[in-house]
């Protein structure tokens, strides 16, 4: 066992074993001491060094000069200066023998004496020897992880016969040779004695240290730990790329054509199968490895097989935008590709043409090809080759070039390319067929090319391709057929070649799912039907395509729907089997929908079909049964003359066949007849006429027409006839009542009484229609009285107990409107317990129902007898509970109901107080921001507290009272101001108010109230506030003292009309004098009161506060 730090190697020239000290780099023929007995002993310190040198330093003598220099084996540096005993490497200046290129340690040599002009131990040789030692250490360090992963690789190396390579051999297999490399593989930097070489453990290439600082785990190399790799390989290993780019590029750079071909093939396969190939990191790697220049050079100088491989690689690379941008910068690349297309071998031409196809997939690539005169070269290949793969690639290139709006197509047409490409359709290669079809479709978008295609007999080759089992070929054939069908002569040729059959069959193919494909098939069939109707009918009939066409009539794509309708209207009439399929597949229903579509083209197509189909009695009845009549009648008045003509033909056929009934004559063109039938003596005709009108009355324009024709009185008269007739009539009346334009007219037409009678109908549907009409009519003030007199309120009150939510909603609407317009009619509601039903609605989960019920109760409370009934029914607690509703509309209507209830009787007001409604009312007052709402709440509070505003104060404090002052009427303000004055007599209450400047300002503002009572109460409140020192300062800032002084002065005068100015009320003047007195007692304001002396003196001289001085 060797001691740690030693390695056993063999001399390649003699096979003799020798030993290497990996620390010092020294070699020896004899085993190191302790090799047998002490396998784990460390090697002795390197000899030759002086005392005091660290373990990693060695002292040597330069044989050429005799100078002593020192080697740091840790940093692999040399220096002439002796390091200190504590030096750890890197000390001193660099010596004259820096490291050289890596190589294996050399075996020991016998000492030789220098002779002549040569020196055995020159500086250069010494440097190389040191470099060899250090590189041996690097290699040994690289092999160490593999040895550890093998768990004792020495034994394996000793017994690893049988041709197997050890892990170290596997690591270095395929590596670049040191003696053959002079510059970095990645950067191109030349290696020197300073710029050392390093092997990437993944690609095996020699790179400089700047681009090999990273380590990574390399799979499949026998190493389980991270090892040195170059930057490119590091990125690839991080991504997990399947191919080593650097290794393949190295093969491309090699002189071996086989290696070049293998590398090109492997990279091409990767590029064509893995989108990851377009990753930015991989693109950057190709750029860093100067791949574009390399590929260009290979295209120009390599053997044909290599050129073909490189061209195939370029074709795959150019399929990605990222590589197109990269390769675009290589100016000579396109010239090399075109040169290969022009003069290369067949395989090379195919690969180069494929590369051109990838390049021309982009607009910039096409521009480059045009600038390089590439179109002429490609066109020459097309006209002179019979090799199918080359023809396919050429068609792809030309198709790409024809995408741009240039004159390329013209050059192809003038050189007869259409004939050459049309000949390719007979090939057995599906890919060539697709490419040729694509190119022809693009060329045939021009009239001149379509003419050439027709002359070339392309229809014969195209027809079987329309039925191809290859979806891509079939779609390409369809695109060409679509272009050819636009040209009359080509369409005729296609029809004669039998193209209609495969096109019709395509409609039934499950692969024809794309809207674009379906639209193209239908367009082709329509054009072929225009060329030969009989052949198209036969083709559709033979494949049974009519049901599918009928389905397509309702397709959401407008083009498909129009084409399908056109085909049905042209192919079904006159063909018995197609017509039968039309009826059986529900085609008439779809035709009816087309009539209502609003699309004149679709309507014309549908009517054209119906005008022919309706000529047969059986088909006429089927047309009516499938709902085509109404739409046909509507089109009788269409502004389009052609539509009117077809509608008239269809309508006449239906009448002649006896397929129409009176109930179906609902069209505005026959409205005069229908309105006359309402008043006709023929009773049997009234019901159908009413039914027809009812079906039409949902249209606003028809309601207007019926009204203008005088149909409303006739309908109102039918309300009292038999159940069926009255049902149709009330249906129509309900539609009119829902229209605000006719609500005023219905009472005049005599509909109120009959409608009220129908509210009691045993037929629910009749009852609901009548209730709907009554609910809408209740919005008309002139109809409220007649409805109440007709007993409608009683019936509606009973219907309110229904569990039908719609019925409840209509009943509540009716009650709100009728009670709001006639509160006295509440008696009729009370008789049937309708008020109880209203209270039930207060607990409804619907906020709208709660709101309407509360409003209705509020209306009822205006009728005093209803108040007692509502109080007995415990209405107040229910309403009080709704004050907490989260819905503002419910809260507002509840406030209205409580206010109306409390306003009628004192007992009701007390009940509202007892129910605890004052607090939530006050809360609503404080939280509301709308002035009208505050006024509404203030009025309700006034009715509820009836002067006891302390209840409001207790619930909301001074702010609540001030809000009432701001929103209430003069009477309310007087009551509230009196309460404020009384409250402010309490010193504790004054303290609570002093913190709010706005509140004091509001009280002071009441001094200007036109109501003397409010003014007097405000003066008392201010006088009470003035007693507080803090309040006087606030009052002074608000100008209260000046206002009081002016009022007192004005009170001493009498106007010519006998009225006093200022504070005319004696109590008010007394309160103002109290204000002045409070300020006079305050030293801060004594001097300011001089202005008040004269009014006070005048008052005293006049005999007191009541005195006045005449003007």
The major sheet is characterized as:
3 strands, antiparallel
List how many beta strands DSSP finds: 12
DSSP helix fraction: 55-70%
Which of globular, elongated, flat, extended, rod-shaped describes the shape? flat
The total count of helices amounts to 62
Give start-end ranges of low-pLDDT stretches.
Answer: 36-51, 86-105, 109-121, 148-168, 1104-1111
Head-to-tail CA distance between termini: 140 Å
Structural class: mainly alpha
Average pLDDT score: 78
Oligomer: single chain
**Which strand-content bin applies to the residues?**
under 5%
Order of strands across the main sheet: 1-2-3
Global Rg: 54 Å
Could you characterize what this model shows?
62% of the residues lie in helices and 4% in strands. The chain is mostly helical and 1111 residues long. It has a three-stranded antiparallel beta sheet, with no helix packed on it. A three-stranded antiparallel beta sheet has the order 4-5-6, with no helix packed on it. Strands 7-8 form a two-stranded antiparallel sheet. The model is unreliable at 36-51, 86-105, 109-121, 148-168 and 1104-1111 (pLDDT under 50).
What are the defining features of this structure?
1111 residues; three-stranded antiparallel beta sheet; disordered C terminus; mainly alpha
Question: What secondary-structure arrangement, pairings included, does this model have?
Answer:
Layout: E1 6-10, E2 17-21, E3 27-28, E4 57-61, E5 68-72, E6 77-79, H1 123-150, H2 153-159, H3 167-172, E7 198-199, E8 206-207, E9 214-216, E10 227-229, H4 231-239, H5 245-253, H6 257-273, H7 280-288, H8 291-301, H9 304-317, H10 321-328, H11 331-343, H12 346-359, H13 363-371, H14 374-384, H15 388-401, H16 408-414, H17 417-424, H18 430-443, H19 447-455, H20 458-466, H21 471-484, H22 488-496, H23 500-508, H24 515-531, H25 533-543, H26 546-552, H27 558-571, H28 576-584, H29 587-595, H30 600-613, H31 617-625, H32 629-634, H33 641-656, H34 671-678, H35 683-696, H36 700-708, H37 711-718, H38 723-737, H39 745-748, H40 752-758, H41 764-777, H42 781-789, H43 792-799, H44 805-821, H45 826-831, H46 834-841, H47 847-860, H48 864-872, H49 875-882, H50 888-904, H51 906-914, H52 918-927, H53 931-945, H54 950-967, H55 970-984, H56 987-994, H57 997-1005, H58 1012-1026, H59 1029-1037, H60 1040-1051, E11 1053-1054, H61 1066-1080, H62 1093-1101, E12 1109-1110
Parallel strand pairs: 11-12
Antiparallel strand pairs: 1-2, 2-3, 4-5, 5-6, 7-8, 9-10
Helix pairs in contact: 5-6, 6-9, 8-9, 8-11, 9-12, 11-12, 12-15, 14-15, 15-18, 17-18, 18-21, 20-21, 21-24, 23-24, 23-25, 24-25, 24-27, 26-27, 27-30, 29-30, 30-33, 34-35, 35-38, 37-38, 38-41, 40-41, 41-44, 43-44, 44-47, 46-47, 47-50, 49-50, 50-51, 50-53, 52-53, 52-54, 53-54, 54-55, 55-58, 57-58, ...
């Amino acid at each position: 066992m060797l001691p740690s730090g030693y390695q056993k190697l063999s001399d390649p020239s003699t096979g003799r074993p020798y030993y290497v000290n990996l620390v010092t780099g020294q070699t020896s023929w004899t085993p190191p001491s302790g090799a047998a007995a002490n396998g784990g002993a460390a090697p002795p310190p390197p000899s030759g060094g002086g005392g005091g040198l660290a373990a990693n330093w060695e002292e040597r003598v330069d044989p050429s000069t005799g100078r002593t220099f020192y080697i740091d084996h840790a940093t692999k540096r040399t220096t002439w200066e002796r390091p200190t005993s504590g030096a750890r490497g890197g000390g001193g200046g660099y010596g004259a023998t820096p490291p050289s290129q890596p190589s294996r340690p050399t075996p020991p040599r016998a000492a030789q004496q220098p002779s002549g002009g040569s020196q055995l131990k020159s500086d250069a040789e010494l440097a190389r020897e040191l470099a060899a030692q250090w590189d041996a250490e690097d290699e040994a360090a690289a092999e160490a992880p593999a040895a550890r992963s093998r768990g004792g690789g020495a034994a394996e190396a000793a017994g690893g016969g049988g041709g197997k390579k050890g892990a170290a051999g596997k690591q270095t297999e395929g590596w670049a040779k040191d003696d053959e490399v002079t510059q970095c593989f990645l950067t191109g930097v030349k290696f020197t004695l300073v710029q050392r070489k390093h092997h990437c453990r993944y690609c095996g290439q020699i790179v400089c240290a700047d681009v090999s600082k990273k380590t990574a785990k390399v799979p499949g190399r026998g190493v389980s730990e991270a090892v040195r790799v170059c930057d490119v390989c590091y990125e690839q290993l991080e991504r997990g790329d399947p191919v080593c780019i650097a290794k393949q590029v190295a093969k491309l750079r090699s002189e071996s054509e086989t290696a070049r071909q293998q590398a090109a093939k492997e990279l091409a396969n990767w590029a064509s199968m893995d989108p990851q190939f377009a990753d930015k990191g991989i693109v950057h790697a190709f750029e860093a490895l100067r791949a574009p220049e390399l590929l260009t050079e290979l295209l120009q100088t390599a053997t044909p097989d290599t050129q073909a491989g490189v061209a195939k690689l370029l074709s795959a690379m150019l399929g990605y935008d990222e590589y197109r941008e990269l390769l675009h910068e290589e100016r000579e690349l396109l010239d090399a590709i075109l040169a290969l297309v022009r003069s290369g071998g067949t395989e090379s031409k195919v690969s180069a043409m494929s590369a051109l196809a990838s390049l021309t997939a982009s607009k910039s690539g096409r521009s480059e090809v045009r600038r390089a005169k590439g179109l002429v070269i490609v066109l020459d290949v097309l006209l002179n080759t019979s090799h199918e793969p080359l023809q396919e690639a050429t068609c792809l290139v030309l198709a790409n070039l024809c995408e741009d709006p240039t004159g390329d197509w013209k050059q192809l047409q003038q050189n007869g390319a259409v004939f050459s490409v049309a000949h390719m359709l007979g090939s057995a290669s599906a890919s060539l067929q697709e490419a040729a079809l694509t190119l022809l479709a693009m060329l045939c978008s021009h009239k001149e090319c379509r003419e050439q295609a027709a002359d070339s007999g392309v229809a014969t080759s195209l027809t079987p391709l329309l039925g191809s089992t290859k979806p891509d070929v079939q779609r390409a054939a369809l695109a060409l057929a679509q272009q050819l069908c636009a040209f009359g002569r080509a369409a005729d040729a296609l029809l004669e070649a039998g193209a209609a059959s495969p096109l019709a069959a395509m409609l039934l193919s499950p692969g024809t799912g794309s809207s674009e494909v379906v639209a193209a098939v239908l367009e082709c069939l329509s054009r072929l039907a225009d060329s030969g109707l009989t052949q198209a009918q036969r083709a559709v009939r033979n494949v049974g395509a009519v049901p599918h066409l009928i389905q397509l009539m309702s397709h959401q794509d407008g083009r498909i729907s129009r084409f399908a309708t056109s085909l049905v209207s042209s192919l079904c009439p006159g063909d018995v089997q197609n017509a039968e399929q039309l009826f059986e597949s529900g085609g008439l229903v779809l035709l009816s929908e087309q009539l209502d579509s609003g699309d004149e083209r679709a309507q014309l197509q549908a009517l054209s079909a119906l005008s022919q189909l309706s000529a047969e009695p059986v088909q006429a009845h089927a047309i009516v049964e499938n709902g085509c009549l109404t739409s046909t009648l509507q089109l009788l008045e269409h502004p389009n003359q052609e539509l009117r003509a077809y509608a008239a033909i269809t309508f006449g056929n239906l009448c002649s066949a006896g397929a129409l009934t009176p109930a179906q004559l609902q069209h505005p063109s026959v409205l005069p007849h229908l309105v006359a039938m309402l008043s006709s003596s023929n009773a049997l005709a009234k019901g159908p006429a009413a039914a027809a009108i009812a079906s039409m009355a949902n249209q606003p324009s028809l309601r207007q027409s019926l009204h203008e024709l005088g149909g409303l009185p006739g309908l109102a008269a039918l309300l009292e006839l038999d159940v069926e007739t009255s049902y149709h009539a009330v249906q129509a009346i309900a539609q009119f009542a829902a229209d605000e334009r006719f609500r005023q007219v219905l009472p005049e037409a005599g509909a109120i009484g009959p409608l009220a009678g129908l509210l009691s109908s045993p037929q629910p549907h009749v009852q609901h229609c009548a209730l709907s009409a009554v609910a809408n009519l209740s919005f008309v003030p002139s109809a409220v009285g007649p409805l109440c007199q007709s007993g409608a309120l009683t019936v509606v009150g009973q219907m309110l107990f229904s569990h039908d939510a719609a019925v409840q909603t209509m009943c509540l609407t009716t009650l709100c409107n009728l009670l709001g317009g006639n509160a006295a009619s509440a008696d009729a509601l009370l008789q049937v317990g309708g008020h109880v039903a209203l209270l039930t609605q207060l607990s409804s989960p619907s906020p709208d129902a709660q709101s309407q019920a509360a409003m209705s109760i509020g209306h009822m409370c205006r009728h005093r007898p209803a108040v007692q009934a509502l109080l007995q029914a415990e209405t107040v607690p229910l309403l009080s509970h709704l004050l907490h509703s989260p819905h503002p509309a419910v809260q507002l209507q509840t406030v209205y109901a409580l206010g109306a209830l409390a306003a009628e009787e004192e007992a009701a007001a007390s009940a509202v107080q007892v129910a605890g409604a004052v607090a939530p009312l006050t809360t609503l007052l404080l939280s509301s921001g709308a002035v009208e709402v505050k006024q509404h709440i203030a009025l309700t509070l006034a009715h509820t507290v009836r002067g006891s505003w302390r209840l409001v104060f207790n619930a909301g404090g001074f702010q609540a009272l001030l809000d009432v002052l701001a929103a209430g009427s003069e009477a309310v303000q007087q009551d509230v101001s009196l309460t404020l004055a009384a409250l402010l007599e309490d010193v504790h209450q004054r303290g609570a108010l002093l913190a709010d400047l706005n509140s004091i300002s509001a009280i002071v503002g009441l001094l200007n109230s036109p109501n003397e009572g409010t003014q007097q109460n405000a003066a008392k409140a201010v006088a009470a506030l003035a007693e507080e020192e803090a309040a006087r300062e606030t009052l002074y800032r608000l100008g209260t003292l000046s206002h009081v002084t002016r009022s007192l002065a004005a009170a001493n005068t009498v106007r010519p009309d006998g009225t006093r100015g200022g504070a005319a009320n004696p109590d008010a003047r007394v309160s103002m004098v109290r204000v002045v007195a409070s300020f006079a007692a305050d030293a801060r304001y004594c001097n300011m009161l001089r202005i008040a002396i004269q009014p006070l003196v005048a008052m005293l001289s006049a005999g007191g506060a009541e005195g006045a001085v005449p003007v």
